[in-house]
Amino acid sequence: MKQQTIYKSMIGIMLFFLPLSLLGQGFLKTKGKLIVNEKGDKVILRGMGLGGWMLQEGYMFKLGHIGQQYKIRQGIESLIGKVKTDDFYNTWLTNHTTKRDIDSLAAWGFNSVRLPMHYNLYTLPVEQEPVAGQNTWLEKGFTMTDSLLSWCKSNHLYLILDLHAAPGGQGNDLAISDRDPSKPSIWESEANRQKTIALWKKLAQRYSNEPYIGGYDIINEPNWGFTDPNDRIGNQEKENKPLRQLMVDITTAIREVDTKHIIIIEGNGFGNNYNGIMPLWDNNMAVSFHKYGNFNNQASIQGFLDLQKINNMPLWMGESGENSNTWYTQLISMVEAHNIGWAWWQLKKMGSNNPLEIKLTPGYQKLVDYSNGKGEKPTEAEVQATLDELAENLKTENNVYHHDVIDAMFRQIRSTETIPFKNHSIGTNATINAVDYDLGRQRYAYYDTDSASYHYTPGVNTVGNIGRLYRNDGVDIQQDENGFYVFKIEDGEWLQYTINVKDRGKYSLNLKVSADSSAGKISVFVNNELKIDGLEIPKKLNSDKWLVVKTAGTDLKSGVNRLKIRFDKGGFNFSSLQFAKIK
């Protein structure tokens, strides 16, 4: 969808949140349990993380089997050589995130941006320094940050700097920090620690007088067993002494040149283990936690609320996402009720559970298959053509825009109203794709028995949207040569469609379905009135995938009608609704 279309489609949200986005009220600071502006007004940060720009994690691009960015880069270099690989990565950094992306975030209702930084865009790795113990500064990262800050300022958005990949890497989850395990981590190298401290001092010196810098998120998701090597992600760590000392040292260096900005800290175990970290050592600090894949009840964040109460400090949910729309709406509603701001992960990748989706092309899939050992080696020309295509598809104007995700993150947290996903106008004849049911919350616009992913909940392992295509609700969607369709339909699920009927009258309602294994049944409601009861969906008897089930017809009033298709008995696939006026 083109950028101007994105703006028009979300104009209501933009206007609703306009007072929140005009945040040019000076430096953010902490005041007890709140983040406030210089007027003392409470600020709830509603942010988006720019994952995949400065730092590629393999899963974002169907390369989870490779993991780290340096390995992805090595793989590309083995196919097209170093010079062309360098050119591709320069184009990547130019195209992935631009002013259009930041303009879009502002239009949708966000008021802040979290920048996951890779240290190697700002300084050399310690092993490459010409003089040991000295720091060579690279202008690339600073220039990119300057540009991003200018885009944020023009949109009145705060920019939070996040050191996502620290020198040497900060944990045993290798991809999130692009860590090479054959080299010393930040916890095993004093040189890496000193470079990290120096980098933060350099950044703070550069941006000390920039009020649109919202804060310094000084080290992302440490995950390390300091006292027990078998505790690889640091969940069981009781003291966290090296982590606390590093964060104190970074704070000291920042405060030598910058006394204005909030310093944000993250505990061990991916920002969740704060044993030994307290008490706080600075009077302008916030504590970040990350939340993925567990239930959205107060019990899931109670430990952080307790920590907040004891230490009288603001909480910030620095990362969350990678789930369904229902989960998004529930979580944002809950944390904002506790005056906790948030930053979502992430703006764009290959996949549908983020606002923007990078297209997966046949050429790129061929490259992925080869990297997986499942396909033939592509030629250098094929690789270059695929990477050129990918570089173009990174641009906002070439992304797939998932307005259902934005709707769930903003409108749906304040309203149970359902609105049309698309404009469905019914004249003499019309066809509505089954996947274009209304926008709205679970149990209001649709009902699906598995609506979210709870893969980090002990004893629970749900998936949510199994198809992971087209939309990000719990409704399961697949695709064939004819388009998208609803599959894995279970008993009791339903979908609602808001339609505009030109002329009042009786209309036939035919359903394009496929039942491979057993017969199903549906009921149809129009404006909450049962019109068709227990219509049988027959088992497929021939080689055709799809068949059309016809009904005797139903009365529709002129204007807006709400049509609900209830699946009394599931086990079939659903492609479309076909209307024709009965004369």
TrEMBL record:
All copies of the CBM6 domain together span 445-580
UniProt keyword Hydrolase present: yes
One Pfam family it belongs to: CBM_6
Alphabetized UniProt keyword annotations? Carbohydrate metabolism, Cellulose degradation, Glycosidase, Hydrolase, Polysaccharide degradation, Signal
Claim: Signal is one of the keywords in the record: yes
Q: Tell me which domain of life the UniProt entry assigns to the organism this sequence originates from.
A: Bacteria
One BP annotation, GO: cellulose catabolic process
* PROSITE patterns the record matches: CBM6
| Taxonomic path | Bacteria, Pseudomonadati, Bacteroidota, Sphingobacteriia, Sphingobacteriales
Spell out the protein name for this chain. Cellulase family glycosylhydrolase
Q: Which PANTHER family match?
A: ENDOGLUCANASE, PUTATIVE (AFU_ORTHOLOGUE AFUA_5G01830)-RELATED, GLUCAN ENDO-1,6-BETA-GLUCOSIDASE B
GO cellular component term, pick one: extracellular region
